[in-house]
Structure formats: C-alpha cells, structure tokens
Amino acid sequence: MQRIALIGFGEAGQSFASGWRADGLAGVITAWDLKLEQPAAAPALREAMEKLAISPATSAEKALAGAGMVFCLVTADRAADAARSYAPLLAPGALWLDGNSCAPTTKHEAARAVEAAGGRYVDVAIMAPVYPRQHRTPILLAGAPAEDAAAAMEGLGMQVTVAGPKVGDASTIKMLRSVMIKGLEALVAECFLAARTAGVEEAILASLMASDPGIDWPKRSSYNLERMMVHGRRRAAEMREVATTVSALGLSPRLSSAIADWQAQIGELGLAGGEDSLADRSDRILAALGSQRALAH
How far is 129 from 126, CA to CA, in rounded Å? Predict the structure, then answer.
C-alpha cells in the first residue's frame, strides 16, 4: 500500500479517507490543511483526522514526505497556489491528483508547477457529491500519467475513468456540467425565494409538478437550497472557474457569473442545512437576507 497524503481535509478528503478505512484499503494516510494553523478550527479538524487513524501533520513537508499519491482537495480558488506551494515538497515521481473544481487553464498552471518539481500531475474531476458513495464516487482522470493514476486509485476501490491524455480533458467536462447542476440550484433559489415572498410557492410547485411529474420538486428544491446554504462559498469559487472556462471557449459566461453570485450570497449567510423542508429553508434564507439588508442600511 502506497503512502497517501491529503492536502485539504474538508468534505472530499474526509469522505475518501472514511471510505478507505471502512474497506481496509489504505495503509498510512497523512493530511495537511491550512486550518491546522488556526487555533479556532484546528481542534475539530484534528479530532476528525484522529477518528480515521490519520495523524495530523505538524507541517505540509511532513505530510508529504514519502507519499507516492497526493490528493489535492482544497478549494477552486486555492488549487494553483497549493500546487506552487507544495510541489517542491513532493517525493520524486509522486502522483499529484488535483481533484479541485477548476478551469482547464488553472489546472495547466498547477500542472506546470508540479511537473517542474518532478511530480506527475493528474487532472481529476469528481463527478458527483462525495456522500454517500465516498471513495466510490465517479471520477474522471486526464493527463499523461492518467493510466498509472487509474491503476493506483482502483487499488483504493475508487471508480475512475480516463477521459483523455491531456490536462483539461477531465476538468472541461466537470466545468461545463456545473453550469447545469449549480445553475439549477441558483434557479431554485431565485424562483422559490421570490415565490415564498409573494406567497405563491404552492401554486408554483403545483405547476411544476404538472409540467414535470417525474421530479419531486419540493424534495429536489429543498436539497438544492441545502447545497447552497452549506457549500455556497465553495460552489461560487467553482462557478468563477466555470466562467473562465466558458470565456476561453469564446462564449459569454453570463449565466455562470450570475450563478456564482447566487451561490456566494447564500453561502456567505453561514446557515446550517437544518430541517429538510423547502419552506423552512426558504424562510431562514429570507430572514438572513433581510437581516443583512437591515444591517447594510
């Protein structure tokens, strides 16, 4: 079993590690997260690591020492910085598995830093929420070492498909898919927050159910709001990378930019998902937005 390092220990890192441990598929796992340097956040993060038999590293250098596989799972806006900062610490030939939701241009930037330091860069696109499937979440890989990475990740029980030989072959698919997935979330927010304010949400739901009876609109819409409440800031960073991707293809990213704004606005409210109820989630978002507006004036 290769020594595995995780750079970033948020939802994806914890989910993968939990799945590996449950299936007995990983040996030594080390982890580094910048929150370990923050007194307020470090205790909870250390506790999460220790529950998974992961020793919290005292530095990035110690976390990466001897690791043959490095999963970079930070945020879209930190991905290139992480590659530049940590690539010099890689063991020769280590696989740098960049699972961040970034534009191909950002991934190329990260790849240059990793390859210049003697590492092997792989464009990794995580194609679905990491819960409940954890390490078995569908993943696309791209880049020259993609076949080697696929073999190593399959040894960890991961469900991977090689999308192509070039960095960007995987991330382009991920980015453009996000226009639809995160866009539906933003549409739900704009539609149902306005409908709740106007007192017509039941009529809207009835109309949608009549038009598309195959979708459980109250359940799906409640879920979409929860994704924005809990992960909106991270999703906004991703959507800004999507906008970069669309622009690089010669198209205007009008919707991608608007989606990023909605995701950021709701994510920055800092609300918990709470009860699985479209009405309850709508009411709490509207109350928080109202308080925000009051403070602004």
Answer: 8
DSSP H or E segment with residue 84: helix 79-86
Q: How far apart are alpha carbons 29 and 221 in whole angstroms?
A: 37
Which pLDDT belongs to residue 57? 86
The answer to whether 60 and 35 are in contact (CB under 8 A) is: no
- Amino acid 297: pLDDT: 61
Q: Where are the beta strands (DSSP E) in 93-251?
A: 95-98, 120-126, 139-142, 160-164
Which pLDDT belongs to residue 291?
Answer: 86
SS3 253: coil
- Distance of alpha carbon 56 from alpha carbon 73, whole angstroms: 16
3-state helix, strand, coil in the chain (%, to 5): 60, 10, 30
Residue 158 tokens read as: 């991961």
- pLDDT 10s digits, 55-82: 788 999 999 999 999 999 999 999 999 9
What b-and-e string marks burial along 36-51, b requiring 16 or more CB atoms within 10 Å of the CB?
beeeeeeeebbebbee
Report the distance separating Cα 82 and Cα 79, nearest Å: 5
Regions in the chain scoring below 50 on pLDDT: none
pLDDT at 55: 77
Q: At 97, is the secondary structure helix, strand, or coil?
A: strand
**Which position has the token pair 């995701």?**
263
CA separation for the pair 139, 22 (Å, rounded): 20
State the pLDDT at residue 160: 98
State how far the Cα of 107 lies from the Cα of 100, in Å rounded to an integer: 9
User: Do 224 and 167 meet the contact criterion of CB atoms below 8 Å apart?
Assistant: no
Measured distance CA(267)–CA(274) in Å, rounded: 14
C-alpha distances in Å from residue 266, one per residue of 176, 200, 235, 292: 22, 21, 11, 11
What confidence score (pLDDT) does residue 295 get? 72
Chain CA centroid to CA 88, Å: 24
